[in-house]
Amino acid sequence: MIVFSRLFNRKRRKIVYLHDGADWALEWVAKGIAKHLHHNGCFDFRIATSLDKLAPGSIVHFGNRYDFFQHDPVMIGNRFRAVITWLHGQYNSEEFHDLFQRLKASIPYVAMIVTSCRESEIELVQAGIPKEKIVVIPLGVDLELFNAVERVNIRPIARGDLGFSDADFVVGSFQKDGSGWGDGMEPKFVKGPDILVQVLDELNKKIPNLKVLLTGPSRGYVKKELDSRGIRWIHRLVDRYQEMPVYYSALDAYLICSRVEGGPLSLPESWAMQVPLVSSRMGMPRDWIENGKNGFVYEATDIMEMAERLAAIAADRDSVRSIVETALADVRALDWGTIASQYVNEVYLKV
């Protein structure tokens, strides 16, 4: 529960969640928090795209770390109370090392860093970030939008519209896993598109009716590799996040093969829609999946094991009924109302 007693006797504090609008995962983190803070009336909370006209002393929550580094950290620290969301990254990797060094140098001007999983917390501490400035708050889900009851009604329509038959075994992958914002022919290593293709290739050898449903931009590499292996796929670019439950409704399983993640959002989304989840062990899946109880989790190198698990689900779809029911119960802890309370009590009231 949000601690309201601490709020009634103080002036409503201004919180600005800074978001550039380019990443809908980060956008929906902002909207998930905003929905519940506006409803409860705790803070003067709004979402903005720039620092223009912000009152000094405001809490500025940078939803994207790159937005923070576009500004002078000293100016930010002198004018505002800065909170940064830092979802993922490996300190010793060539891609992220310099970014961690910039964060470390900026720490005197940062009030709090929010990350979504223990793995990312460990990387931050190893980079020299004081643990007392880090809080772990997972990514959430809107359980009104992602509704397992509605899935039963939507499923036949969704599968029909997408061209799937009742006999097809449909595996979903809803992410951006190509570099840049073009066709995505160059794979983004951390997202594991090469692993995804390998798992689906092995699965295709085991079952006769595999179909793959892709959403998200920059999927060129995956589509090319699936074509080369004779695996049938459908790709849809989804303009509105509110449409995503329709695509989950069409699935028989969801597959995550990332090497590094802060989330992904597909974990709570799959759970909320009662879609069986098979995932590599990283990010939130490492923290939240109990193998064989609410999903299935493997090392990213366990190609055959992931394929065999998916084949077992295809052979007996009722075998995972208790698993998706447990996942549906567990995802209540990730409802945005609960997550917003964590932001208030563990971040905004403390900075």
Secondary-structure blueprint:
Elements: H1 5-8, E1 14-18, H2 24-40, E2 44-48, E3 59-62, H3 65-69, H4 73-79, E4 81-85, H5 97-106, E5 112-115, H6 118-126, E6 134-136, H7 148-162, E7 169-174, H8 193-206, E8 210-215, H9 220-228, E9 232-236, H10 244-249, E10 253-256, H11 266-272, E11 277-280, H12 283-288, E12 296-298, H13 303-315, H14 321-330, H15 336-348
Parallel strand pairs: 1-2, 1-3, 3-4, 4-5, 5-6, 7-8, 7-10, 8-9, 10-11, 11-12
Helix pairs in contact: 2-15, 8-9, 8-13
Summary keywords:
Rossmann fold, Glycosyl transferase group 1, 41% helix, single chain, six-stranded parallel β-sheet, 351 residues, 15 helices, disordered N terminus, alpha/beta
Account of the protein in words:
The chain has 351 residues and is of the alpha/beta class. 41% of the residues lie in helices and 15% in strands. It has 15 helices and twelve strands. A six-stranded parallel β-sheet has the order 2-1-3-4-5-6, sandwiched between helices. Strand 7, helix 8 and strand 8 form a beta-alpha-beta unit. GO terms for molecular function: glycosyltransferase activity. It comes from Leptonema illini DSM 21528. It holds the Pfam family Glycos_transf_1.
